[in-house]
Specification:
The protein is built from 7 helices and 16 strands. The chain is α+β, with helices and mostly antiparallel strands and about 300 residues long. It has a single domain, classed as Metallo-beta-lactamase, Chain A (4-Layer Sandwich), CATH 3.60.15.10. A 7-stranded mixed β-sheet has the order 1-2-3-4-7-9-10, with helices on one face. It has a 6-stranded mixed β-sheet with strand order 11-12-13-14-15-16.
Length: about 300
């Protein structure tokens, strides 16, 4: 865990090497109340096996610091990892939450996976956040910005002078995240990013992924000022048309994430695995020839 100190708040960051994902714990120092953001449930696709190594490291931190976990938050339905939200909610008593538009994501993927019995009402989470909604983490004020583009339901959590911008922005030398998944939209992503960049310049931006570009150390924290000055895709001076052209060209060159078809069917269930079948084993589904053509 790497800790960042803010006024009255500590933000602990844990990077999962396997998926390049950042997981965060936001701690209100006055009350020792915490929120966990975007925790990873490990998945080994070769073995079809899940594990809780990342989530257990978060639990260790929570126990060592004697924190009360009030929230287990996701920013969106991830395409590259399974959410550990239900596991951590059960272990800590924290409430799970995600953006309210997740219902539309559930409907989209319910069709793709052909899951007619899946409840598509967001009932898998304790709370669904609307755009602009406010909540508290202990004594800290937090609010939600709807940030569609990477997915149609993505949200940014703003807590004090920190923002959790998930897969809208990456750190400045890595630009932005793709906008070509079902429900993605590069124009919407541009508008969401500009709204984040309108936060005050000293606001920290904690991103969802980093892959250590060109061998540098992984880094998840930057600031609005850094992003506006240096972000290779959206720095000041770049306009919407240029961004969209860059984003769409890059997206056309990217293969689908290794775990997308495995992860979405878990994450639209709030991070729960499918029910076991009659033989006692649970199975994932792969929609065939829906995301073709096959890569060479
Ligand atoms: Fe994502």
């Amino acid at each position: 865990m790497i800790e960042y100190n803010h006024k009255g708040m500590t933000i602990a960051s844990l990077h999962d090497e396997r998926t390049g994902s950042f997981q965060y714990v936001v701690v209100d120092e006055a009350t020792k109340v915490a929120a966990i953001i975007d925790p990873v449930l490990d998945f080994d696709p070769r073995a079809g096996a899940t594990a809780t190594d990342n989530a257990d490291l978060i639990l260790e931190y929570v126990r060592a610091k004697r924190l009360t976990v009030e929230w287990v938050l996701d920013t969106h339905s991830h395409a590259d990892h399974f959410s550990a939200a239900p596991y951590l909610a059960e272990k800590t008593g924290g409430k799970t939450a995600i953006g309210a538009k997740v219902i539309e994501v559930q409907k989209l993927w319910q069709d793709i996976y052909c899951l007619p019995d899946l409840p598509v009402d967001g009932s898998q989470w304790d709370r669904l956040f609307a755009d602009g909604e406010q909540f508290r983490i202990g004594s800290l004020d937090a609010h939600v910005m709807l940030s569609p583009g990477h997915t149609l339901a993505s949200i940014t959590y703003v807590v004090g002078d920190a923002s959790f911008v998930h897969d809208t922005l990456m750190v400045p030398d890595s630009g932005t995240s793709r906008a070509d998944f079902p429900g993605g939209d590069a124009h919407a992503l541009w508008r969401s990013i500009r709204a984040i960049l309108d936060l005050s310049p000293e606001t920290a931006t904690y991103v969802g992924h980093d892959y250590g570009k060109d061998g540098r150390e992984v880094v998840g924290r930057s600031t609005v000022a850094d992003q506006r000055r240096d972000n290779i895709h959206v720095r000041d001076g770049i306009d919407e048309a240029e961004f969209v052209a860059t984003r769409e060209k890059r997206d056309a060159s990217l293969p689908l994430p290794d775990l997308m078809l495995a992860a979405l069917q878990v994450n639209i269930r709030g991070g729960r695995l499918p029910d076991a079948e009659a033989c006692g084993t649970a199975f994932l589904k792969v929609p065939l020839n829906r995301f073709g053509p096959a890569a060479e």
